[in-house]
Write a sequence for this structure.
């Protein structure tokens, strides 16, 4: 993800921070709640397979649905690398 | 000019932002004055009870007798609390009370006052206080549409987003964005979000971009809104006024730098 040859401009940093911040603001889902959800997901998935908890990524995104702009439906996005499908 | 009559229909516009100090009062003063310059009958209302400012920005602070709270409490008639701006026919200000607090007025009372004003004015501009408490609820209660003011900074944009959410929840259909204090030089360096970036994030229609212009400070010092002047911000406000009226005015490309502004002649000319 990070490009070491290109330092992000402060404008890009601001945009990236705001995009993530506003999504959680809009659905009023705090980072603490996200952590709880993440922990629970790990618990459930781990019952069936071995997953890479360090590199997993869970966040709420605004996926474009029918209408554009502010009325996008928030989507819970989870990217969970599987280490072993048959752990049990 | 004396008998300027009201045209059909009245539009009530609330100018709001969430965060303080981003330019709500300056925007209210300039949009209101700009509409009056075009012959509209305009009433500016300062709804920031306890922290009134619109009167000083308009240069009318010495003429206050009655205020919004007096009207609401029945100490005077609406007409008595309206200060006529002698420089612009058709422009009036209803000041806020300095010695009271926000609980002195309720949303229901605001709606009543505005209903009366609708009969006499083409435009009622409400200068909203910062925050999302009762002052905000009072200011938005009787409004038809909203102008949300923000600067290209993370804190102001976050608050603006919150405000837009609240306005939508209160049934507002027309919410337009004013981006204030944009600095072209910083945008070019990649150290400030551009207007496109801000619109992208907030996802509401853009109605104006006001460049960071020291003349705003100067005009505030003098108590005379700069709308209609050929200063960069003056032209920007004139353009916002045109867009408020529903006219399509192209956005001047700020990327070309400030020097470009001085070559542009505004729609208004100084008399």
């Amino acid at each position: 993800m990070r490009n070491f040859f290109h330092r992000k401009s402060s404008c890009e940093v601001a945009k990236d921070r705001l995009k993530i911040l506003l999504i959680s603001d809009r659905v009023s889902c705090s980072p603490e709640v996200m952590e709880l959800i993440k922990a629970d997901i790990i618990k459930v998935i781990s019952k069936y397979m071995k997953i890479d908890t360090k590199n997993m990524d869970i966040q709420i995104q605004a996926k474009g649905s029918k209408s554009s702009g502010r009325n996008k439906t928030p989507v819970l996005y989870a990217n969970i690398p599987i280490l072993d499908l048959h752990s049990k | 000019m004396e008998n300027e009559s009201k045209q059909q229909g009245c539009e009530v516009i609330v100018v709001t932002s969430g965060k303080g100090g981003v330019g709500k009062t300056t925007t209210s003063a300039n949009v209101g004055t700009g509409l009056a310059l075009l012959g509209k009958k305009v009433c500016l209302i300062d709804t920031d009870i306890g922290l009134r400012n619109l009167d000083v920005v308009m240069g009318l602070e010495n003429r206050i007798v009655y205020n919004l709270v007096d009207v609401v409490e029945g100490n005077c008639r609406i007409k008595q609390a309206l200060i006529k701006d002698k420089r612009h026919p058709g422009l009036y200000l209803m000041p806020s009370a300095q010695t009271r607090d926000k609980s002195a007025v309720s949303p229901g009372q605001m709606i009543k006052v505005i209903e009366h004003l609708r009969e006499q004015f083409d435009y009622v501009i409400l200068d909203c206080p910062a925050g999302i408490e009762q002052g905000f609820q009072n200011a938005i209660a009787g409004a038809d549409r909203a102008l949300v003011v923000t600067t290209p900074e993370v804190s102001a944009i976050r608050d603006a987003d919150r405000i837009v959410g609240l306005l939508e929840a209160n049934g507002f259909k027309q919410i337009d964005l004013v981006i204030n204090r944009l600095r072209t030089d910083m945008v070019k360096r990649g150290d400030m979000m551009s207007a496109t970036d801000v619109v992208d994030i907030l996802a509401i229609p853009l109605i104006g971009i006001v460049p960071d212009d020291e003349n705003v400070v100067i005009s505030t010092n003098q108590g005379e809104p700069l709308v209609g002047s050929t200063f960069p911000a003056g032209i920007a406000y004139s353009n916002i006024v045109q867009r408020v009226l529903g006219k399509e005015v192209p956005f001047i490309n700020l990327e070309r730098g400030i020097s470009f502004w001085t070559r542009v002649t505004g729609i208004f000319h100084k008399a």
